[in-house]
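Anyone able to model this chain together with 2-acetamido-2-deoxy-beta-D-glucopyranose?
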Amino acid sequence: MNALLLFALVSAASAFYLSEQDEFHFKSWMAQQNKVYSLKEYYERLQIFTENKRRIDKHNEGNHSFTMGLNQFSDMTFSEFRKSFLWSEPQNCSATRGNYLSSNGPYPDSIDWRNKGNYVTDVKNQGGCGSCWTFSTTGCLESVTAITHGKLVPLSEQQLVDCAQDFNNHGCNGGLPSQAFEYIMYSKGLMAETDYPYTAIEGVCKYDPKAAIAYVREVMNITAYDEMGMVDAVATRNPVSFAFEVTPDFMHYHQGVYTSTKCDNTTDKVNHAVLAVGYGKDNGSPYWIVKNSWSSDWGINGYFLIERGKNMCGLAACSSFPVL
Ligand SMILES: *[C@@H]1O[C@H](CO)[C@@H](O)[C@H](O)[C@H]1NC(C)=O
Ligand SMILES: *[C@@H]1O[C@H](CO)[C@@H](O)[C@H](O)[C@H]1NC(C)=O
Ligand SMILES: *[C@@H]1O[C@H](CO)[C@@H](O)[C@H](O)[C@H]1NC(C)=O
Ligand SMILES: *[C@@H]1O[C@H](CO)[C@@H](O)[C@H](O)[C@H]1NC(C)=O
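re: yes, here you go
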């Protein structure tokens, strides 16, 4: 079929006006992302991309604490995105009473573990697998191990994807850092990334305890919704794993302090786990500094800032970290 004719049909069917300029933006984005589509898919993705871009442009014209931008997800609908990158069902995230005891401060106004030494590994990429919980877990254990023993070694997410099911974890369909720390504690270790590399697919467990290089002696759960407990742990101890609810606008986050009125603040809605590596204040607005696992091309070199102090998107619902 003639491409122009198809274009007209697609446009007419959806009553969605696509200009030459929309197509120009889409083509530059495709080139930048090395994307190739079949003809049919091209027009589907062009439409989704254009809807996303309009949403982004509209947001950026407003007065918001964060901006949105095009990224590797710009040709996906939120429901496609959710299927590939977020938990498909609620996890058992509810340490109603945690075992972590906070001190009473005082706490520094800001802290960033990335600047305190060689304590945080490079941002990784979970790919199309809902394994964020494994990246939050390795990120935290990598940092705690480096702070304790002075050696920063990337750890294996794949071991957690393949082997941690007995602790209510579900590979590419979700899990919780607290449950992953429990698994590491009982299985007596986690292997290095290089010895058990990431494939983004659930496979047979190949854990070899003799090759373990990181250990957990105790799991610290911070009491649900005790955001000051998270501040205490990050200020006085190490980075902390937490989960929150991702809603459509977060997919397009570019930079600034993320805040939302669309997300929920309860344990059953959280759908993505990440790692708090610090916190600070911007013109009096407090925020967390967070390491994500969507590659360094997303957000602020793979990181994002999110409003602190209001349990934004349920971020204080289930936070935890390991003790060696
Ligand atoms: C933008 O929002 C900030 C914070 O809500 C407010 O202080 C500022 O006055 C607003 N600026 C404009 C131009 O509306
Ligand atoms: C939550 O915990 C219960 C009881 O241990 C378990 O049966 C269930 O599978 C868990 N749910 C998830 C999503 O892991
Ligand atoms: C911490 O959380 C994990 C998983 O959510 C749970 O199995 C464990 O019992 C909790 N630990 C404590 C000490 O409460
Ligand atoms: C969730 O938000 C509601 C409405 O703003 C608020 O009343 C409630 O205290 C919040 N719950 C938690 C656990 O933060």
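Strands lie at 66-68, 111-112, 218-222, 240-244, 253-258, 272-282, 285-291, 303-307, 319-323.
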